[in-house]
Amino acid sequence: MNTVELIEALNEIAKEKGIDKDYIFTALESALVSAYKKNYGTAQNVKVVINRENGDIHVYAQKKVVDDVKNSLLEISLEDAKNINPIYKLDDIVDIEVTPKDFGRVAAQTAKQSVIQKIKEAEREILYKEFVEKENDLITGMVQRKEKTKEGNKYNVIVEIGRWETVLPPSEQMPNDAYNQGDRLKFYITEVRKTGKGPDVVISRTHPGLVKRLFELEVPEIFNGVVEIKSIAREAGSRTKIAVHSRDENVDPTGACVGPKGIRVQNVVNELNGEKIDIVKWSKDPAEFIANALSPAKVISVEVNEDDRSAKVIVPDYQLSLAIGKEGQNARLAAKLTGWKIDIKSESQAKID
User: Fold this and answer.
1) CATH 2.40.50.140 domain span(s) along the chain
2) Residue 243 burial (CB < 10 Å; 0-12/13-18/19+)?
3) 34-67: per-residue pLDDT in tens?
4) Residues 191 and 135 sit within 8 Å (Cβ to Cβ)
5) Under a CB-based contact definition with an 8 Å cutoff, are residues 189 and 139 in contact?
6) Of these four, 88, 149, 228, 293, which has the most CB atoms within 10 Å of its CB?
7) CATH 3.30.1480.10 occupies which residues in the chain?
8) What is the dotted CATH code of the domain comprising 138-204?
9) Are 118 and 28 contacting, i.e. CB atoms less than 8 angstroms apart?
10) Which residues of 76-114 are buried (b: 16+ CB within 10 A; e: fewer)?
11) Rounded CA gap, 53 and 300, in Å?
């Protein structure tokens, strides 16, 4: 490969990979400095310059201008420097060309190894930046395969996200998802870490942020800030409670989230493979908020204790099991949603107490 072909190849690679071509040239120049020292065994301070237009390669020995030369490989006298160019003065650095005649051959060999390495590094960096911008956001991925974990009865799911593959571990999987090869699902990116092998993209199907982002996609009023999601409590694959508030008194926050004929919330439910979603109205009044959070159960009264953030809730006898929920789920999610400890009693129990 001659120098012109080298330039054409580097320009093409840079364009195809979306990499700054100056990054590749600078990296190649650094690699050629090492190649020069290795092949020509000098202890000089050298620099290599590649002409970006025609590919010409020049090697320069860099020498410091001094009064008394003690090391001719690193220093040059002021008199000799001025013979090269009268403008030089003490402590300046003089570039003296020392390009070997056969350096093109060395350059070609070095270029191939260096460029391949630097392209991989640049691609990893581009991918990292691409994913780190999506941290705490949604990404659509395609299930590639399942791999058994060390436990044996659990699987890691390998997911293709754009030009990259990542792992969805058992802890981030929804129990009601099948994860069949070719399934296209939305995932929540919880974290992006930089590693030597490329970005480590941590994705989840269980994170409450997934529900929040899905509602932002479906509900324009949330996306534009008119309706605000105040809190989310989720037991992934089973049930989620979401508390919403409207900044505009003319906009019903729960109605906006449900959508015409329930289409908006249904789209979220479909993406979550049937997970139930309760949309409740947030209130700055703790008693009102707690009563709303226990929906769909009806509440008679709520007595709050601000000191320990606890609340005693009275419900009709026939609503007790609904308020508590199956295996205590409704009460548990309501407590998580509001941040209050909730003690639920039926009307009959309250009278006995």
Assistant:
1) 138-204
2) buried
3) 888 888 766 678 898 988 887 788 899 899 999 9
4) yes
5) yes
6) 293
7) 3-121
8) 2.40.50.140
9) yes
10) bebebbeeeeeebeeeeebeeeebeeebbebbeebbeeb
11) 81
Structure tokens at 71: 């090391």
8-state DSSP, 263: H
3-state helix, strand, coil in the chain (%, to 5): 40, 30, 30
Cα separation, 228 vs 181, in Å, equals 36
3-state secondary structure of 177: coil
Nearest to residue 30, comparing CAs of 50, 56, 8, 4? 50
Give pLDDT tens digits along the chain (353 positions).
Answer: 455 666 777 777 777 777 787 877 888 888 888 888 888 766 678 898 988 887 788 899 899 999 999 998 899 999 999 999 999 999 999 999 988 887 877 776 776 676 677 777 878 888 899 999 999 999 999 999 999 988 778 899 999 998 899 999 999 999 999 999 999 999 999 999 999 888 999 999 999 999 999 999 999 999 999 999 999 999 999 999 999 999 999 999 999 999 999 999 999 999 999 999 999 999 999 999 999 999 999 999 999 999 999 999 999 999 999 999 999 999 999 999 999 999 999 999 988 87
CATH number of 211-282: 3.30.300.20
- Residues forming CATH 3.30.300.20 domain(s) in the chain: 211-282, 284-353
Other Cβ atoms less than 10 A from the Cβ of 254: the count is 19
> Cβ contacts of residue 251 below 8 Å, gap of 6+?
221, 226, 227
Identify residue 131 by its one-letter amino acid code.
Answer: F
Question: Going by C-beta distance under 8 Å and a sequence separation of 6 or more, which residues neighbour residue 76?
Answer: 63, 64, 65, 66, 69, 94, 96
Q: E strands of the chain, at which residues? A: 46-50, 57-66, 75-77, 93-97, 138-148, 155-161, 164-168, 184-195, 198-204, 227-235, 239-246, 276-281, 301-305, 310-315, 341-346
Domain 3-121, CATH homologous superfamily name and number: NusA, N-terminal domain (3.30.1480.10)
Domain 284-353: give its CATH code: 3.30.300.20
